[in-house]
Every structure is written in C-alpha cells, then in structure tokens.
C-alpha cells in the first residue's frame, strides 16, 4: 500500500516533467533538423560548426565565466561577513529581496543610472573625471549581470557557511594555523558545495542572456541567447535557433555534471 501511495503522488511530478521539460526539448530537437522551407536538413548543424558560431560560443562562455568569477569574488566575502553578523537572516533577506523585482525593471533602472546624465556620470563629474560612455560597453554588460546574479550566488554559499561546524575552525586555530590558512584549508574546502551550487545558478543562465545584451550592451556583446532570440524573432529561422538551443542544453548538462556535488571524507581525502 505504501509503494502504491508513493507512486500515486509521483504522477503529477512525472506529468509536469514530461509536459514542461521533456516535450519542449523534443520539440527543439525536432525543429533543429528543419530548414527554412520546412524540409529535413542537417545544414543547421553544419552552419553551427562554422567559424562564426564557434567564435560566438567562445564569447558566450568567456562572458559567462567573467560574470561568474566576479559574482563569486563579491558574494563569498559577503556571505562570510553575513554569517558573523547579528540578525544575519534579516540582512540576508535584504540582499535577496531585490531578486524578486522583475529583471526588466532593473535593467531599465540601470539605463538611467549608467546613462550620460545619470548619477554615475554625475559622480564622475564631481570628482573631476568627467562623463564617460558606460552604456553599450562590455563593462556595463558584465557590471549589470553581476549585480543581478549576486543574490543567487550568496544564498547557497551563505547556507554552506552557516552550517559549517565551528569546531573545525577552532581546531585549526588551536593548532597554530593563520586566518588565511584556516580559510584555505578548512573553511573553503568544507563549503565548496555551496560554491559549486552558486556557480551553477550563475554560469548556466549567464550563457543564455539576451535582454541585458540588447538594452545595456546595445548588441555590442553577442551571446548564444542573443543569437537564439534573433533567429526566432528576427530572421524567423527557427531551425537554426533550435540548433543553437540544442547545443546550449548540452553545454548546460555537461556543466551540471562536472560541477555536481560529491561528498568527500574529511580525513582520508577519498570519496565517501
């Protein structure tokens, strides 16, 4: 009876996965083999491996790497400080709340902030640097992307740090390790799963960004997400757009596999 009840509860989950995960992937895969005239073709995959799309793929991974790196460099120290503060849950909530705001509204806000007559350039004028072109640059694209993804990186790292047994840190210091050595050999290795989870939450969506590239970077930055949008909405070449989406899905699966959590023994250094 117990097994039958569990199987019954699995039906809605299986239905959801089949309808909203498996079916869309099959549909994308189907369209990737269709040409502009609707006939079966392999030309979309031949075009994808051309130099243009290869450079586009490298560019997308490079920008996703930069966004993830800068987000991690900001988020880890922030999460570390948060765990040592009073009312840390309240401060964490204040960091997470901006992620509830629609991303389009935040992007439009940055159009004003980074604009020629925005507060950022006004500050540069005050300190004597003068107004500079911030919008429609690589810097603005990475800057805004990092801001948007910071809460998604902080949360898993904070959870990992908050669950860290302080006895390990105390033992390290009692044995004469410096603060840096304690961080490098104790704190960071024991919270690496939080770092991996945060990197997944940032790197994978960063590969397919297109709204920020449109509005903030002014198409000066072209990613796989931008290319998919153009093929579906501008050129109406759904086959090529689906082909790019297929490789993007494959890349995401590989990244999730490589960065998947693995439990390691604390003393033996071997897989538990």
UniProtKB/TrEMBL annotation:
The keyword Nucleus does not apply. PROSITE patterns: ABC_TM1. One of its GO terms (cellular component) is plasma membrane. It is found in: Cell membrane. It is a multi-pass membrane protein. GO terms for biological process: transmembrane transport. The chain crosses the membrane at residues 7-33, 61-83, 90-114, 126-150, 201-218, 238-258. Its main location: membrane. Pfam families: BPD_transp_1 (PF00528). Residues 57-259 form the ABC transmembrane type-1 domain. The keyword Ribonucleoprotein does not apply. Keywords: Cell membrane, Membrane, Transmembrane, Transmembrane helix, Transport. Belongs to the binding-protein-dependent transport system permease family. CysTW subfamily. This is Spermidine/putrescine ABC transporter permease. It comes from Jeotgalibacillus proteolyticus.
